[in-house]
Write a structure and sequence with these properties.
alpha/beta; Oligo-1,6-glucosidase, domain 2; Immunoglobulin-like; 8-stranded parallel barrel; 6-stranded antiparallel sheet; 22 strands; 16% strand; globular
Length: 576
């Protein structure tokens, strides 16, 4: 695959951007019916602008019976009536753009709801007809036996008998989500038409859900087949052509491919998609924190950077699904074992192939590893992704159905229901968090905004600082050797500046030596505090407390100027 330097890849708006994922139904209720909606989200866009993110990623908003959080779609060209309508979406996009925010949209390519008109028409149609061939049918359930069952706690087969059709249909996900048949050219054209529709409405990018599974072939895991990549190249070409016709910048195509890096890399070829989530990195980050040891993480980053030197990867910590670790295919089994052993709070919360917990409860409510992990996320090459509420240290609600434990309403104020909605409790989409330590009336945006040392204000100050540091957005990356097993250190360097990063992922204080002879004699000072440190040298020492981190500016270059003097004052202190 052709590779590009970090600077060459910085030509698109998304390179180095921070993406904020939210579930519209659970974010803000604008009409008081107990369900979050697009109007409520529009009213809260000012918060996301204040926080310092660049793009808003919405989970599916299309019409759906909501048996799988909206990923079971019945109409690809509509908005679910609970959320609003197309006019409300247009207003949301317009307001977001006024604030400088991009809007991303979940595009579910692999499957539909079994209530979709396409499937209802297919099951009643004759065998071999164009209507029947919109989906994948067999007379028995023996085909594609090497494809693993993804939802193993809910399904024991990838096939479901349909009594109307008199055949089995394929579903790589839940049984009410039949897989589309991409060997049918009509299916491909129908989904490209859906892409055109949303580009026309002003969407800035698409998270492409479950893209490895579009095609199936016997004797394979039915993941990432050549036919899938061929279609995605066609998708990229179609999106680029549509944007050119409209005279607008190219939209982001972001792949959800939960695969090892060497298998996910083809998705980000120059003629295919722009980016993919790096779920393998996520697993290594949690394994490093679990054991307070970074050798496997360093090895992974070193090998990964040799494979691809660009900044094309989206970097998630948590999202709306379980913390996916896999069956030994995504990452080595020893990495999975480290996470199992190192997070006792995960006991009893394993779902499918991962941990069904939010970030803060998984970390036992300790803000220090939260900051350490995000300090890495915000300074590694790529696009950091924040899951709504993680900037607060929001809790989860164990016992709710499926993954709803991680999808509870956003906490805004100390008012009833955490300010999410004024509706009576029985009408709420999901119950707000009331558990001790995470109660929404104490842990919310309003309270944390008022506390200078809160986790929320830390995230804001760090994101604003990152915005002023071009090296962290699109600079080159170089791992540094250091003398402590719990500390990872590296250099981010652009034409404008050089940033040194060191993060202690262990629960014990660490003193480490770094070789900065390449910058011998140059000034070193802390970015966030502005404190001067000893000049760079071959034997340069740093002390980090438990789960501590630091970014240092090497040389005399000042951070990038900004017209927003308040942001500079907030993010870059002038003294210790």
């Amino acid at each position: 695959m052709p590779t590009n330097s970090a600077a060459e890849l910085a030509s698109h708006w998304w390179e180095g951007s921070v993406i904020y994922e939210l579930i519209p139904r659970c974010f803000a209720d604008g009409n008081g019916d107990g369900i979050g909606d697009l109007d409520g989200l529009k009213q809260r866009l000012d918060y996301l602008h204040w926080l310092g993110v660049d793009a808003v990623w919405m989970t599916p908003i299309c019409d759906s019976p909501l048996r799988d959080g909206g990923y079971d779609i019945t109409d690809y060209k509509s908005v679910h009536p609970d959320l609003g309508d197309l006019q409300a979406l247009d207003t949301l996009i317009r307001h977001a753009h006024e604030l400088g925010l991009k809007v991303l949209f979940d595009l579910v390519l692999n499957h539909t709801s079994d209530m979709h008109l396409w499937f209802q028409r297919a099951r009643w149609a004759e065998r071999g007809s164009p209507e029947r061939n919109f989906y994948v049918w067999r007379d028995d359930d023996k085909s594609y036996s090497e494809a693993p069952v993804l939802f193993r706690h809910f399904e024991d087969s990838n096939w479901q008998w349909d009594p109307v059709a008199g055949q089995y249909y394929l579903h790589r996900f839940l049984r009410h989500q039949p897989d589309l048949n991409y060997d049918n050219p009509q299916v491909q054209e129908a989904m490209l038409d859906v892409l055109d529709f949303w580009i026309d409405r002003g969407i800035d990018g698409f998270r492409l859900d479950a893209i490895p599974f579009l095609f199936e072939r016997e004797g394979t895991r039915c993941e990432g087949l050549p036919e899938t990549h061929a279609f995605l190249r066609r998708l990229r070409s179609r999106a680029k052509e549509r944007c050119e016709q409209l005279g607008r910048e190219e939209v982001l195509l972001l792949a959800e491919a939960i695969q090892p890096v060497h298998e996910a890399m083809p998705y980000v070829a120059d003629d295919e998609l722009h980016s993919a989530f790096n779920f393998a990195l996520t697993a290594h980050l949690f394994a490093a924190v679990a054991h307070g040891e970074v050798s496997a993480l360093q090895t992974f980053l070193s090998e990964f950077r040799q494979l691809n030197a660009g900044c094309r990867w989206a970097l998630p910590l948590r999202n709306h699904d379980e913390l996916w670790l896999g069956d030994g295919h995504l990452v080595p089994e020893e990495i999975v074992d480290r996470v199992r052993e190192g997070f006792p709070n995960a006991e009893g919360h394993w779902l499918n192939w991962g941990i069904n917990r939010r970030l803060s409860p998984l970390l036992n409510g300790d803000p220090r590893p939260n900051k350490a992990l995000h300090a890495l996320l915000y300074s590694l090459p790529g696009m950091p992704c924040i899951y709504y509420g993680d900037e607060l240290g929001m809790g989860d609600y164990p016992g709710l159905r499926d993954r709803d434990a991680n999808r509870t309403p956003m906490a805004w104020t100390s008012e009833r229901n955490g300010g999410f909605s004024k509706a009576p409790d029985p009408l709420l989409v999901l119950p707000p968090i009331t558990r001790p330590g995470y109660n929404c009336q104490m842990m919310n945006v309003a309270v944390q905004k008022s506390l200078q040392g809160s986790l929320l204000n830390w995230h804001r100050h760090t994101l604003l600082s990152r915005r002023l540091l071009p090296a962290l957005r699109h600079g080159d990356f170089q791992l540094l050797e250091n003398s402590h097993p719990g500390v990872i250190s590296y250099i981010r360097q652009s034409e404008e500046m050089t940033i040194l990063v060191a993060v202690n992922l262990s629960g014990n204080p660490a003193s480490t030596r770094l070789d900065l002879s390449a910058w011998q004699g140059q000034q070193v000072r802390e970015v966030l505090g502005g404190c001067p440190f000893p000049v760079a040298s071959e034997h340069w020492f740093a002390y980090l407390s438990a789960y501590d981190y630091c970014w240092w500016l090497i040389g005399d270059v000042e951070p990038e100027s900004s017209s927003n003097s308040d942001a500079i004052a907030d993010s870059l202190a002038v003294s210790c």
